[in-house]
Amino acid sequence: MKAKYAYTRELQASGTSFQFSFALKDQLNLLIIAHLLLYAAYLALGWAGTLDAPLGEGKVDDLFRHFLPLSAHADDVVSNWSASLVTYQFIHSNFAELLISMTMLWFFGHILKSRVGAVKVVMLYFIFAVISALTFNIAHIIFPIFAGPGEIMDGAFGGVLGVMTVATSLYGKTRFRLSNRIQPTLWQIYAGVVLLSLFLVCKNNISDVMVYAVTIYLGARWASVLKRSQPGNSSAMAEVHDRSGA
Are 158 and 100 in contact (CB under 8 A)? Predict the structure, then answer.
């Protein structure tokens, strides 16, 4: 089953559309599946008692809490900087964060995919994930007290927020006609998700605030560059067409 959000009215071009799918050949969907599988593997290790097994001077769970996430602890920064810069995004200690991140990566990612393609969306996600990690550690260097010493950064929302911001900057005025009365714009959806994340994802310290600010700013800037290089109409009405047989 595929849901097609087709442009109408302003653009008057039904051939231009957002295609949402769960196809395994889609690189964006493969990225989401990787996140879900790794989270399931972590849960399985916990249920099997493997996380409490000894590993070196600690236990297996220490690997997921100190080495794979991005840690601001002074003893961890040097030892695992290169590894955790990439791995932290695949560690999800907060189920709400996982649910929000993967749902929004699928939704906003497919919208942006219509403009730049799936491969570039995935690349953009990883770029913003790394930028978020760098911002997190720089925040702890500049604000060692207010940034929350000893905090860790995990989860994919930093990278996802970048994708969301780019997609919304390009198609923010597009309305999604869910029913005759419910027709939110992409900006409204974006604002609602960001607000929800402040309660369920953000750890309420300077480092997280800086990650949000830098990611949103750079996402908007990248979108403005894309608008100039690939001009197009971003003000449209998106209607839902349920094609069960597609």
Answer: no
* Tens of pLDDT, residues 110-138: 999 999 999 999 999 999 999 999 898 88
Higher pLDDT, 135 or 79: 135
* Confidence (pTM): 0.84
Please state the separation of Cα 159 from the chain's center in Å: 4
User: pLDDT tens for residues 86-105?
Assistant: 889 999 989 999 999 999 99
Amino acid at 92: H
What percent of the chain lies above the pLDDT cut of 70? 80
Looking at the DSSP bridge assignments, the partners of residue 20 are 3
Tokens at 116, concatenated: 């730049």
Separation of first and last alpha carbons in the chain = 6
Within a 10 A sphere around the Cβ of 143, how many other Cβ atoms?
16
